[in-house]
Every structure is written in structure tokens, then in C-alpha cells.
Write a structure and sequence with these properties.
The protein has 216 residues and is of the alpha/beta class. The protein has one domain (13-210): TIM Barrel (Alpha-Beta Barrel), CATH 3.20.20. Helices cover 35% and strands 18% of the residues. It contains seven helices and eight strands, in the order βββαβαβαβαβαβαα. The chain has helices spanning 46-53, 78-95, 107-115, 132-136, 157-164, 181-192, 196-210, and strands at 5-8, 16-19, 32-35, 62-71, 99-104, 123-125, 143-147, 170-172. The chain has an eight-stranded parallel beta sheet. The chain is globular and about 50 Å long.
């Protein structure tokens, strides 16, 4: 069974979306990937790096922009983070592909952007583990949620939101953990009372709804 992994840092894992910012030259020919400027690694001349990365976006296996976003704990000043984020969301919108969001203590910054932008791309908040009321504030916008190893803890914020999250906004990932994607799907299956097969179909359907680059 092919269980789609929306976000991983483990290279050349089949049916997964590899975060390629730091390993773009190590990809196998059939590897799905995302490319973006992570807020941790921004610098004053980030425009030059993005100009280089922008060339990879039209590759048929580049399914998303990211990780991109905001981090108040690590990274340059917020003005730089905001500028880099807006450049990347504009590219995602033009290409019709989602943006994989990294967001640490930046929920308000994302909301500010969403409320002040008339049109934005589909955004997938990866590794969601915030409280339910914060997730609900994002539902009026084109924001989905990707759940990772935190749902293995039944008391986590991630587990609580997964129970209530609209099914058409759900994705699953391993990120940089050692867990396998089937463990994440199995945990979600128990939480939602759905079979792994149903979740597999739901995730593919969700992806194909929000992206111009379809999965089979």
C-alpha cells in the first residue's frame, strides 16, 4: 500500500515529499520534493538563493514550495522572514502548488498575512501540534494540517485537533523523526475510526483537490 508522506527529511523514500532545500543535488530521478527557504537559513541576500531555487519549481517532481514561514525562536529579523515568505507564496500561487509551512510562535503572523491577502495559495501547516482553537481560526482560509509523530501521544494537541479537523484538510508526515509513515497512518486510523485504506484515499483526494500536480 502506498501511503503518501507529505513531508520528510529522509532522502529517497518512495511516495514521499522530500524537503530538498539542503540536498537538491542528491535526489533520485523519481523522488517527489519540495523546495523553499526555511526561516532558519535566511540571510540578507536570500533573494539570490530563491532565484536559484526558483529554477527547480517547474520540475515535474517538485510538488510544493517549502518549508517556508515564520520562526520567532530562530532565524533573522521578522521583516526578512515576511519578505521571503511572501515571495514564496506568490510563486506557489503562480504554479498552482501548495506551500509547506514552518511556523513557530508565528500563528499571528500567518493570520495577518491571510487576512490582508485577497488571494493566496493552498498552505499546509506541517507538524501541527497547537491547540484546537488556533486551528479553528485558520478554517476560513485555504489552510490544511499535516500530522506527524505527535499523534502517537493520545493526549497531544495534534491528536485532539485530528479528531475534529475537517477530513478534507488532513495530511500525514514523518518530518525528521525515525517513525515510519505507516505508523503515523495507523495511529490516525485509531483516532478517527477509519481504515488505513480510507485514510490513504482521503489524503490523495485532498492533495489532488489543492494542487495542479496530481497524485495517482
Amino acid at each position: 500500500m502506498k501511503l503518501f508522506n507529505i513531508h520528510t527529511h529522509r532522502l529517497n523514500i518512495p511516495n514521499s515529499l522530500f524537503n530538498a532545500e539542503r540536498d537538491i543535488n542528491s535526489l533520485s530521478p523519481n523522488q517527489y520534493f519540495s523546495i523553499g527557504l526555511h526561516p532558519w537559513y535566511l540571510y540578507d541576500k536570500w533573494e539570490e538563493k530563491w532565484s536559484e531555487f526558483r529554477n527547480y519549481v517547474t520540475n515535474q517532481n517538485c510538488l510544493a514550495i517549502g518549508e517556508a514561514g515564520f520562526d520567532r525562536l530562530r532565524g533573522p529579523k521578522l521583516s526578512i522572514q515576511k519578505a521571503a515568505f511572501e515571495e514564496q507564496v506568490n510563486t506557489a500561487k503562480i504554479e498552482g502548488i501548495p506551500l509547506i509551512l514552518h511556523c513557530v510562535k508565528g500563528h499571528d503572523l500567518l493570520l495577518e498575512y491571510l487576512k490582508n491577502t485577497s488571494s493566496h495559495p493552498q498552505i499546509i501547516w506541517h507538524g501541527w501540534n497547537l491547540k484546537t482553537h488556533l486551528a479553528e481560526q485558520l478554517l476560513p482560509f485555504a489552510v490544511s494540517f499535516s500530522f506527524g509523530e505527535k499523534i502517537l501521544d493520545s493526549k497531544s494537541n495534534a491528536s485532539q485537533w485530528l479528531k475534529n479537523c475537517p477530513k478534507d484538510r488532513i495530511f500525514f508526515e514523518t518530518d525528521n523523526s525515525e517513525e515510519e509513515i505507516d505508523q503515523i497512518y495507523q495511529a490516525a486510523s485509531l483516532i478517527l475510526g477509519l481504515s488505513v485504506e480510507d485514510l490513504q484515499r482521503q489524503v490523495i483526494q485532498n492533495w489532488n483537490r489543492i494542487s495542479s500536480k496530481k497524485l495517482k
